[in-house]
Design goal:
It contains 14 helices and no strands. With 328 residues, the chain is mainly alpha-helical. It has one domain. Helix 4 (73-97) runs antiparallel to helix 8 and helix 8 (158-184) runs antiparallel to helix 12. The protein is globular.
Length: 328
């Protein structure tokens, strides 16, 4: 088994990549949707990009994935298909909500996924919440509330709809992360990458019919033109999504789904700094205080694990046995 210290270094490196790509993607998507509101197109391309990992996987990676999952190839493919649908739902709800609410408010509300992750991890992974983790999440959510009260929000009755879509997306993200960890257990890096690639392939196979469903429902016309100058940005966003998706799954397996979910709270101060640098936007003093609480809360959830690492290499990280859900 990989030493806990090396696993945590790998996990925190993946978290750093996840945070950077999240913030850059948010800025790019905001610019894209100002000219062309195509949330499902962006979602589909982002998830399909994970399939690009396939040519770069080491020989035997998929065989190792099947062995790790302890199930037949058919079962593994079915689990990947189910995960692709859950993940697509989370991403689509996020993107479709943006026109109804502000990006800042959506980012804040999305942090509800940490609460969903704690509950799901307790039920599915039997991961008992520690006092430090619960208090850290409470502190972070208090910081989230301060940021939410900084006065930046979308006007009109559509705001509530947008907020509920964001919360639904947060629940889907948390479910994806926890189920991914339950599926693979403490898998090695190549196995995690193989699983991520398989979810990308499954997305290509299972989610394309939604283009025609959304077109028939009048929600997103399939043949709506996309300005030519946006395609390079859409491609760049998909490339960043590949890095993000690979990074978050490495972090989920190397650390825990709860840690990965809590870490997304750090996107709030990072996004604020990015907006100030690029757009001159400024947060109110109370919002900066909230951002500081978000960072403090995250540190409170992780420092106890880091201290345990010094005394007991194996106790520093929760271990999960890989289990393939009974889907077929």
């Amino acid at each position: 088994m990989e030493p806990a210290r090396a696993r945590r270094v790998r996990g925190y490196t993946a978290l750093a990549l996840m945070l950077v790509t999240w913030v850059v993607q948010s800025e790019i998507v905001q610019s894209i949707e100002e000219k062309a509101n195509r949330p499902y197109l962006i979602t589909f391309l982002n998830h399909a990009s994970m399939a690009l990992l396939v040519p770069f996987l080491p020989s035997g990676a998929f065989a190792a994935l099947v062995a790790t999952a302890g199930a037949s190839k058919r079962r593994v493919a079915a689990v990947a298909a189910a995960l692709s649908i859950v993940y697509t739902a989370g991403d689509y709800l996020w993107y479709v909500a943006l026109p109804y609410t502000s990006v800042a408010e959506a980012t804040v509300l999305f942090q509800a996924q940490s609460v969903f992750a704690v509950v799901l991890a307790a039920v599915i992974l039997r991961e008992r919440p520690t006092v430090a983790r619960v208090l850290g999440i409470a502190v972070s959510l208090g910081g989230v509330a301060l940021v939410a009260c900084d006065g930046s929000s979308a006007a009109g009755g559509r705001r509530f709809l947008g907020d509920m879509l964001v919360v639904g997306g947060a629940a889907s993200y948390a479910a994806y992360e926890v189920c991914f960890a339950r599926w693979l257990g403490d898998a090695a890096g190549p196995v995690v990458n193989a699983a991520t690639a398989l979810v990308g392939v499954a997305s290509l196979a299972t989610t394309w019919p939604l283009f025609f469903v959304l077109d028939a429902a009048g929600l997103e016309p399939y043949g709506a033109p996309v300005p030519r100058d946006l395609w390079p940005w859409i491609a760049a966003n998909a490339a960043l999504a590949l890095v993000f998706n690979a990074s978050i799954m490495i972090a989920v397996v190397a650390l825990s789904p709860v840690t990965a979910s809590c870490a997304t709270m750090l996107t709030i101060p990072l996004s604020a700094l990015c907006d100030r640098a690029l757009k001159g936007s400024r947060l109110a003093p109370a919002a900066w205080g909230g951002a500081a609480l978000v960072v403090a809360g995250f540190l409170a959830t992780e420092l106890p694990s880091a201290r345990r690492e010094k005394g007991d290499d194996d106790a520093a990280q929760p271990h999960y046995d890989a289990v393939a859900p009974e889907l077929v």
